[in-house]
Amino acid sequence: MLKQVYINKTVLEAAKERIAKVFDDFENICISISGGKDSTVLAHLVLSEAQKRNRRVGIFFLDEEVVYDSTITQIKYVMSMFPENTIPLWFQIEFNLTNATSYKDSQLKCWEKGKHEIWMRSKEATSIKNKPWAKENETVRDKVKGFGFYDAIENFQNSRKDTAFFVGLRATESPNRWRAVSKNPGHKDWYWTTKMKNGNITAYPLYDWNFHDIWKYIYDNNLKYSKIYDYMYKKGMGLQEIRVSSLIHEKSFKALVELPEFEPKTYDKLLKRLKGIQLGHIYGKENKLLKVRSLPKNFKSWVEYRDFLLETYPDAEKKQIFEKRFAKHLNNNYVARQQCRQLILNDYENNLPVDNKPAPREETIKKWRELL
């Protein structure tokens, strides 16, 4: 179990020390950015160290096409902060992205050839438009989905050697992912790194920062940030909801509810680009539909509702994936509600994993009945 250990050092001091250690040990360095607050802070810290050492580092951005216009503005800003120390690696290549708002258009092929007239925007003049690795060496995790987002990242990293990849992961924002990467130290005894192929490592120098540390650094250094954060804050969204990401996958489609208010032009383009967008806008935060928190009136239980959704699932190939997965799960309402969520959001990739255990409420009731 991971524990919080407090030391006589600020998170900023610790992050700078970690970054300096990576520069000491690695000649090739790359920063992964998303246009969000965390990667903006990370890029500024790493580039500041590069400037001190008169070094150049790569800034990698995998463009998902269906993102806020404010995100693109932020990417351009980050890549221009230290131009003499920056190697721009802005990727605008074809890859598949899950669309949680439609069964018919369950995937978007970003930057699909022949559809440039309905792209969200034109490609950047200086972007990387073709895969810089050999086709025969390309790896694909999910043959059903095809070449996807994480495949693009993985193949890019595997095309490099002896490279340190900086990522802005924070444990407070993604505890499950941090738990997975922190089990075994990567380079040397650095618990904030993981090993990869070809002598590469991934480094997470901001892993112990919290939400307030990030914003304090942005304020203290007068950094620009995506204005979407301001819009979300003014709407009264909680800290876990205030994030910048793709607009359509199963963990972020709820952003479609406010998109016409935040960026109306982006919403109009998205309507033309992909099916299901209007559905996501109307029902993205509806408990009985896409949030899957309230059981529809016509069903007596989540188990009954799940069976109905599975029986009427329109894609036979993906239906088999769900059937095989659900056969390993417990058959109770607690698990069934989560299975309904996967079915409604078309999450055949299992990005929203089911907590497969006895229903906590039923277990509590059973316990008290035994005691009383």
How many helices? 14
Q: What is the CATH C level class of the largest domain, in words?
A: Alpha Beta
Largest beta sheet: what is the strand line-up?
3-2-1-6-8-7
Low-confidence stretches: none
SS-derived structural category: alpha/beta
- State the share of residues found in helices, binned by percent: 25-40%
What is the CA-CA span between the terminal residues? 34 Å
The proportion of strand residues reads 5-15%
What is the C-alpha radius of gyration, as a whole number of Å?
22 Å
At CATH level 2, the architecture of the largest domain is 3-Layer(aba) Sandwich
* Silhouette: globular
Query: H/E series, N to C?
Result: HEHEHEEEHEHEEHHHHHHHHH
Q: What is the fold-level CATH name, i.e. the topology of the largest domain?
A: Rossmann fold
Describe the structure.
The structure is a single chain. The chain is α/β, with parallel strands linked by helices and 372 residues long. Helix content is 38%, strand content 9%. The chain has two domains: 202 residues, HUPs (Rossmann fold); 70 residues, no CATH class. It has a six-stranded mixed sheet, with helices on both faces. Helix 3 links the parallel strand 2 and strand 3. Helix 1 crosses helix 2 and helix 11 packs parallel to helix 13.
Q: What are the key terms here?
A:
372 residues; two-stranded antiparallel ribbon; six-stranded mixed β-sheet; alpha/beta; 2 domains; single chain; Rossmann fold
